[in-house]
Amino acid sequence: MRSVETRDWIRDGLRSVAAGALSIVLAILNIPLFALFVVSLALTPVLGIGLVALPGVTALIRLKADLARRVAGWHGVTITRPYRPLPAGVGPVGWKRYRWIVTDPATWRDFAWLLPGAVGGLVLGILTIAIPLYGVQGIVLLPLWLYLGTDWYGYGVNWPIESVGEGFLSLPQGLAFLALGMVVAPWLRRVDGLFAKLFLAPTRAAELRLRVTQLTVTRADTVDAQAAELRRIERDLHDGAQARLVSLGMAIGLAEELVDRDPQTARKLLAEARENSSTALVELRHLVRGIHPPVLAERGLDGAVRALALTSVIPTTVDSDVTGRLETPVESAAYFAVAEALANVQRHSAATFAYVSMHREGDLLRLEVGDDGHGGADKTNGTGLAGMERRLAAFDGTMTLSSPPGGPTIVTMELPCASSSPRTMLSSGTD
Fold first, then answer.
1. Could you give the angle at the alpha carbon of 112 between the alpha carbons of 109 and 116, nearest 5°?
2. N or C: which end of the chain has fewer CB within 10 A?
3. Residue 114 bridge partners (DSSP)
4. Where does the sequence pass through the membrane (predicted)?
């Protein structure tokens, strides 16, 4: 267990140091972007040059800000994009696009972030890489002294004994600074992300506007999903149970006509009718399970997911602290999301192991489904993952996917534990 924790600590430290080096490069880019924005804005009255230049410069700034948001997300700081949606009929350049850009408060918050972000990124990035590098320098100092103090090809180098002693003393000091740098690096990266969030996160008004837009989209997706589900149920009933029941009625009617003059044939028809009734009953049970599985109603989410894991062809473990029952719609959404994720693992991942983690943190249900497959999953390819995201979004839930080539694949889902999330209620409180 300790070896795993040590490996994770080293990995997080190395990633943070690499992110610190990246932040230095990105911070330097803020300065020319700041100058370009000022120049393009100042040139607007000059033959309308700004009408062409400003949209392009703003696109670069937003691309840079989105990259900063993504880097912050690597260290646990979530920053939502705050930009207003592009109105219909707005072209790539022109007065309408210019007005859309300059009237968006997020444009000016991005601009206000450029210089402070450059200074903060440089300072924190340099600190992130300087501390471990100083430790590395201390560690390599001893081998360097020994190398230079060795007689190579008859050319001896005589170093004072104090210098050799200094080389020996630098080793523990270097190890200490390297360990300190690896510990401090993730914290410095998180501080950098929180500083960027002060400027790049949406304001209260922008959050409400984005929330309204999101609710409009999720409502439309939910209506479409419900309509598709009703069509599926109707199709399954028409092609399955309904057809068998019609055949059953015809067989029984024919048996009634033949019961007196051909009892043998009537008995065969009745036997076929009995088989059709059993098949229709099985199909109806499958249809009901697709709407609300009985195991979910009987055992709750914990028991239903454990039953899913037992029936999986891939060895699957379940780690859960979810006790009691949740609201029925939320339970159903969480169950079907996990079921779809496990089905994707079986169909596409070529994995040898999978796991499901379910934890309740206050009013938030956190679900995680992972596997050791080949990775490369993409929400934009296929309908399974996109359908999971729509199902969760209807309850104010979110889904994130991590599936680099070579694996592992981790699907993380967060779902409020109430069918009506407090976040969906737009209060009229002050900002």
1. 130
2. N
3. none
4. 12-31, 37-61, 119-148, 168-188
Per CATH, is 294-424 categorized as 3.30.565.10? yes
Which contacts (CB < 8 Å, 24+ apart) does range 165-173 have?
166/141, 167/141, 167/142, 168/142, 170/138, 170/139, 170/141, 170/142, 171/138, 171/139, 171/141, 171/142, 173/135, 173/138
What pTM value is reported for the model?
Answer: 0.53
Which of 197, 176, 244 lies closest to 80 in space, CA to CA? 197
Using alpha carbons, list the distances in angstroms from residue 14 to 121, 126, 342. Answer: 18, 15, 32
Residue 430 CB-half CA count within 13 A: 0
- CA atoms of 65 and 78, how far apart (whole Å): 13
Q: At residue 116, what is the residue type?
A: P
Nearest 5°: phi and psi at 236?
-65, -40
- Name the DSSP letter for residue 155: B
Question: Can you tell me the distance from the alpha carbon of 30 to that of 36, in angstroms, rounded to the nearest whole number?
Answer: 10
Antiparallel, parallel or unpaired: β 316-320 and 364-371: unpaired
User: In the structure encoding, which two tokens stand for residue 3, read together?
Assistant: 């070896």
Structural contact between residues 196 and 79, judged by C-beta atoms closer than 8 angstroms: yes
The rounded distance, in Å, linking the Cα atoms of 57 and 34 is: 9
CA–CA distance from 169 to each of 145, 175, 176, 364 (Å)? 12, 11, 12, 51
